[in-house]
Design a protein that fits this description.
Layout: E1 13-17, H1 47-60, E2 65-69, H2 79-92, E3 96-101, H3 110-115, E4 120-124, H4 130-137, H5 142-154, E5 159-166, H6 175-182, E6 188-193, H7 210-218, E7 223-225, E8 233-238, E9 244-248, E10 261-264, E11 270-271, H8 283-287, H9 294-305, H10 315-318, H11 326-329
Parallel strand pairs: 1-2, 1-10, 2-3, 3-4, 4-5, 5-6, 6-9
Antiparallel strand pairs: 7-8, 8-9, 10-11
Length: about 325
């Protein structure tokens, strides 16, 4: 049974936040660290509840891809035991496992993640300058992140993507430098448009569209478009290199009509869209109750999905929304 919304969009990709806390305070996410209201450890989904949820998703709802996010997922206690648990499900059902991480606690976990079936890594890196890294994130983890990215590439994961949120007058002068640095690596370098979230002091004068980013890169490199099939990223080969670049254009050219994503917060609430409010009811109470059948959980997820928007509001409207702190969502 496929997970289908009112606009006939099939949802086979679920992003699950494992924790609503992060060890960085990035300026586009949670700069002040004061607006986020963390769930207590008892309020977030336990590993056993996550296991049941993932089994329902891949067994009953034909979900083909699970990506774990945060906050920063790799700072959660006993995280490798969790991935070992999930690896048993991967042996039974056909689905991919990915992680989105800031890379600061990745290096010593890479071998284990690969062993437990993690195939896709998205690693955030917004600058190649150590001083600027500290200014953007509030912490000094530049060396750890760069080292983890290099080792990730060497371990031959199915996909390694480096994600950079581009903000005018902050890091837009590094677009060419990023390409220069990664052009000999077989990865995808993705440039993400700056988006308005609660508490990130959104200012549209700092916004740079994907087409402007692409034009800057084309001043030095020629790009060949890669045919997409409903993907969220506009991807290109960087000619005469091993690198691909992608642009995520959530604001200037949204891709809502092909959205196949469902998000689940660390506390188990469903978010149909990155910008929508979470469901009133948490899956946690259902997953923890053995008298609740898997079929009932399936029906709850299906029912919640029916309120998904056709498309998200404009950037100006998004800037006025509450309850969309990126770290608590599981960006």
């Amino acid at each position: 049974m496929k997970l289908r919304d009112n606009f006939n969009r099939i949802h086979d990709y679920v992003r699950i936040s494992l924790i609503d806390k992060c060890n960085l305070n990035c300026i586009y996410c949670n700069p002040s660290n004061t607006l986020a209201k963390y769930e207590s450890n008892k309020s977030i989904l336990f590993y056993e509840e996550l296991y049941r949820l993932i089994k329902v998703l891949v067994k009953d709802l034909e979900v083909k891809k699970i990506r774990f996010t945060g906050g920063e997922p790799l700072i959660r206690k006993d995280i490798m035991k969790f991935f070992e648990m999930i690896s048993s499900l991967k042996q039974q059902y056909d689905f991919e496992i990915g992680i989105t991480t800031n890379g600061t606690h990745l290096l010593d976990k890479l071998d284990g993640l690969k062993k437990y079936g993690v195939e896709r890594l998205n690693i955030s890196l917004d600058t190649l300058n150590k001083t600027k890294f500290i200014a953007i994130t509030g912490k000094d983890f530049f060396d750890e992140t760069i080292t983890a990215i290099r080792k990730s590439i060497s371990l031959d994961f199915k996909s390694v993507k480096v994600n950079a949120v581009i903000i005018k007058n902050i890091n837009d002068d590094e677009l060419i430098k990023f390409v220069e640095y990664f052009k000999s690596y077989p990865i995808t370098l993705r440039f993400i448009e700056y988006m308005p979230f609660t508490g990130n002091q959104w200012d549209d004068s700092k916004f740079l569209s994907w087409s402007e980013m692409k034009s800057q890169i084309e001043e030095k490199y020629s790009l060949t478009e890669i045919e997409s099939d409903g993907k969220i990223s506009k991807d290109f080969f960087v000619n005469e290199s091993k690198l691909k670049v992608g642009f995520i254009s959530s604001i200037s050219d949204h891709f809502c009509d092909s959205c196949n994503r469902l998000r689940i917060t660390a506390s188990g609430k469903i978010k149909n869209c990155l910008f929508s409010n979470p469901s009133e009811v948490s899956l946690k109470s259902l997953l923890a109750d053995e008298s609740i059948s898997d079929d009932e959980i399936v029906r709850f997820i299906q029912s919640t999905l029916q309120s998904k928007w056709l498309k998200h509001p404009s950037a100006d409207e998004l800037a006025t929304l509450n309850q969309n702190n990126m770290m608590s969502i599981g960006g």
